[in-house]
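Hey, I was hoping to borrow your eyes for a little while. I'm sending you its amino acid sequence along with the backbone structure tokens. Take your time with it, there's no hurry, and the full record follows here.
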Amino acid sequence: MSVFDRIGQKLLFTFDPETAHGMSIAALRCGLPVGARLVRDERLKVSLCGIAFPNPLGMAAGYDKNAEVPDALLGLGFGFAEVGTVTPLPQAGNPKPRIFRLTEDDAVINRLGFNNGGHEAAEMRLAARKGRVGIVGVNIGANKDSADRIRDYELGVSRFAKYASYLTVNISSPNTPGLRTMQAREQLGELLSRVMAVRAAASAQPPLFLKIAPDLVEAELEDIAAEVSEKQIDGVIVSNTTLARTGLRSTSGETGGLSGKPLFERSTIVLAKMRRLLGPERAIIGVGGVDSTDAALEKIRAGADLVQLYTGMIYAGPALPGRILAGMVRFADKERLKSLRELRDSRLDQWAARPL
């Protein structure tokens, strides 16, 4: 981390996490930081689901919940940015405080609860950027008090299909009561059938991803993979935050989803097992504990086509994307790779063999 990044981190860490997050969004809106390291290299390019990604590193959903700064995030060097989670109606989320830093673990616990400004506000911002270059995915969710959550996802697909480079159906947040039950096979099958029908009728048909939890057992993964394959979903994102607290040094007893370095192992095991179940052609985005070049490359070795991060940037600062990508280029030089795609699945067997 540079001196500038360390100073910026210390300043932000004097504020509570949610205030600091708002300040970082405001800074990006104002064009800060300047001089981001943009790494371009042919070997980093990935063609996936009909989209030409300039590099395999993306900003995960959860940071830019209201689609305020997707282009600024791309300006930090990310190959793509995912905004949201966006719900049909605005909602405040859970009571504050609801974000907690676990600095000893390079981790965060959040119980935000899909706080966002709703479809209308996000659509207005995305419509304003229509025609701009850059890959921006939209992560859609359901309102907490919705009487028909599947209908909420249908509305999200219908509303954002014409703006999104890809769509993500998020049914794996632990902070909306009952949401994760939609990962059960019967509910999941109905959900996927209905959103795919809406996408087929929309004016555009962007790729559709399903974001899953890391807290799943083998039988649940098998059911999800079967439904994803049967309904011809384009891919999966592995994974959301975890309810587990295994191996933490911090003593926080806060409830909510854990993200950051402690999530890396579990999420990577789930990723590899999903790759085994889905086969080589289905797209997979790996997320969870990515905070370095080594971590990003290991996700690819375990079966990921693309990689996302969020919590890593809280601790390493906005220069992290550039550092990770520069490290990838150095690795490609050292190993004489023609493309980073050559790495995919090279450690699939080792990761998939690990117990959950």
Remarks:
- The two ends are 33 Å apart (CA to CA).
